[in-house]
Every structure is written in C-alpha cells, then in structure tokens.
Design a protein that fits this description.
Helices cover 43% and strands 13% of the residues. It has 15 helices and twelve strands.
C-alpha cells in the first residue's frame, strides 16, 4: 500500500499504521477509557440524512467562508495537535505548508515540536495558535505575545484538558515524549527502521514553544499525561479565559465548549468563536459528540458567535451536515495526522484535496452554490 492508493480516511489510517511504531500510531488512534465517545464522534453523523435540491444550476460552487476574521478557501481546517514531529520528521512545518496551499488554517498546539517563530517563517498562510493555561502565567503570556509578533491570525484556548484523560492505550504501549524503548515497544521500533532513522537523524524532539521554560516532555522521558497534570492549571476559570481574550485582543475561540450554558458564557466574555469539541474522545469518555450538541447550541447562540465543529470529521458529507445545522466551519485532527504519518506534507495535501473534492462534488449534488446556501432544510433526521 502506498500514498497513491489512499482514497479516504481509512486508507490513510492503514498506511500510517504500517509506517509508524505502535506506540506512536496508537497515540493518534486512541481515546479515553472505553473509547465510546471516540466512536460516537463519527457515528453521530449517521443519525441524519442530506436532502438534495435538483436542477439548481450550481456550476462550480464557492467553498470559501470567513472564520475568525479570515477568509479561507474551504470550510475545513487543521485542528491543533501536539507533537507532530513524532508522526513525520517535518512535523508542523509539513502541515503548515500543506494548509497554506489549500488556503485554510493551520493550527499550532502549545505542545508543538516546532516553534511559533519557525512556523511563521515557513508559511504565510493563515495560522491559529492553540493555548493552554499553565500554572506559570508568564509562560501563558509569553505564548500570546509571541503569536502577536509572529503574525498569527487567531488564538484559541483549550478548556477541556485541565487534567489528562485516561488514555489506556498510551499506558499499554508505553507512549512517552520523547519515545523511549521498553520491552513491549522495542520490537515495534526495530521493525520500523525508516521512521527510526528519520527520527534520530533529523531535528531533535522538543516541545519547542515551552522548552525554554521547562524541560519536562523534552529532555527527559515523560508521558504526555504527566506533563498535562504537572504543568496545566487545574483551577482554570472563566476569569482566565476572559483575561486571554483581552490580552490577545483579536479573533479568539474557546475550544472544548459542549453545553448551551457555556456557549452563552463564551458570548458574554467576548469570544469570537466556540469550537464544539470533546478533544477527539480523549478526555471525558461517555460525553456527547459535538455534532449531537450542535442543534441546541446553534439555536441558542447562532448569529452571536461562530461555531466550529471539531471531532469525528471523516467525509465531505460530515462537513456539509455540520454546516447545514448551523456550524460556521469544521476542523479535523486524526484525519490529517494519519495522512502526515503516511506521507508527510504530500500526505496532508492529498487528504485536504480529497476532502475539498468531496465537499465540492457533494455541494453540486445537494444543489448549493455557496456555503451560505446550506441550512437545516438540507437535513432530515431519522
């Protein structure tokens, strides 16, 4: 199997599983506890169907939309994801370049393995930075200020990771940052020599945005769960979120909003957008899927704040269902990470092209010329 034979999410996942050592693959693939929420994130899209209009003379549909103050060429962008250096030696740089080619947002995690400044130098495309509140407020302030000076377009604060979820696959496979050999993982690393050579001979692994503040997660073998539990502030509050909104002073999203009450509060503190997300099913297992919550939240705050669906996106039809139910745009993580692991920048470009082609084709089949034409009349619940 090769990149040429990848036509959908499952194909990229299979190729990434073939190319990546087991601890790395399962870190991308896994969720918390019994992984019920992980599965539900995608299954939720099966509860409704698209209803097309015919003879609509669509021609070539316009997929562009405005998100967080920036016009993007398609209503789908890359979710912020940590430690991309583990999946391919070019990591965030490859993802940022691919997103730029498709005129959509690349999102950088606080726990990225390239720095804010490095990515600013390699990509002129729209960039969003994802922030965590650390116990050391000077670190949080430093990240916000560096994003300002580096030309990032928007900032989002992840609010659902004040403590790490119980990701049992990481324990089972011995996932650490940086990777270390255990009896169980040794065979997997040994049977993936290309990955090992690229990892060892290219840029050193580090959490580049925070390494000057802490060595945890960079120079010592430290599980990502331990890093979260030691460094993130479990007492994070709405006051902290409002502080970040004001310090940033630009387009700002809260990532991890799932309730109507919290969506309304996000409007009150001046956020530009909310990202309906359960962290890819990696935090509170048994929680609702973003798409399941979308109708209630869109009814409550639609038109007052942008709504981004993050979680379970596998197909262009998933994007169109979300947009029809009131979302402004969608983002995805696992899909492009598997593509990154499968083929680096070329892999990310290919999955973005596949998703763009699917959205374009399905817009034509739905009879819709532009994103703003999509609405709840396109949806029928079973």
């Amino acid at each position: 199997m090769s990149l040429n034979n990848c036509y959908n999410f499952d194909d990229f996942r299979k190729l990434a599983k073939k190319k990546l050592p087991a601890p790395i693959f399962h870190y991308i693939d896994g969720g918390a506890d019994d992984e019920t929420t992980l599965r539900r994130n995608t299954d939720s899209f099966l509860n409704c169907d698209l209803v097309p209009n015919i003879l609509a003379s669509v021609g070539q549909p316009d997929l562009s939309t405005t998100v967080l103050g920036t016009k993007i060429d398609m209503p789908l962008f890359l979710s912020p994801t940590a430690m991309q250096r583990l999946y391919h030696h070019e990591g965030d740089k490859a993802s940022a370049r691919a997103a730029e080619k498709f005129g959509t947002f690349y999102s950088m995690s606080t726990m990225a393995t390239s720095s804010i400044e490095q990515i600013s130098n390699v990509s002129s495309g729209p960039k969003l930075f994802q922030l965590y509140i650390h116990k050391d407020q000077s670190l949080t302030d430093n990240l916000i200020d560096r994003c300002k000076s580096s030309g990032f377009k928007a900032l989002c604060l992840t609010v659902d990771t004040v403590v790490a979820g119980n990701r049992e696959r990481d324990h089972r496979w011995g996932f650490t940052t940086p990777p270390k050999l255990t009896l169980k993982s040794l065979l997997s690393f040994a049977t993936h020599p290309k990955w090992a050579i690229n990892y060892l001979l290219n840029e050193k692994f580090e959490l580049a945005n925070v390494s000057h503040f802490t060595k945890k997660g960079s120079s010592i073998a430290k599980g990502v769960m331990e890093y979260i539990n030691e460094q993130y502030d479990p007492a994070m509050s709405w006051k902290d979120a409002e502080y970040c909104v004001k310090r940033w002073g630009g387009p700002f999203a809260l990532k991890g909003v799932m309730s109507v009450e919290d969506a309304k509060r996000a409007v009150d503190i001046g956020a530009s957008a909310i990202m309906l997300s359960n962290h890819g099913g990696r935090q509170l297992d048994g929680s609702r899927a973003p798409f399941d919550q979308l109708p209630k939240i869109a009814e409550a705050v639609g038109g007052k704040i942008e709504i981004i669906i993050d979680g379970g996106i596998r197909r262009g039809t998933h994007v169109l269902k979300a947009l029809s139910m009131g979302a402004t745009a969608c983002s995805f993580g696992k899909g492009f990470l598997f593509a990154l692991g499968a083929g680096g920048q070329a892999g990310v470009e290919k999955i973005l092209k596949i998703m763009k082609d699917e959205i374009t084709r399905d817009m034509i089949l739905l009879g819709k010329k532009k994103i703003s034409d999509l609405n709840h009349t396109n949806i029928a619940y079973r």
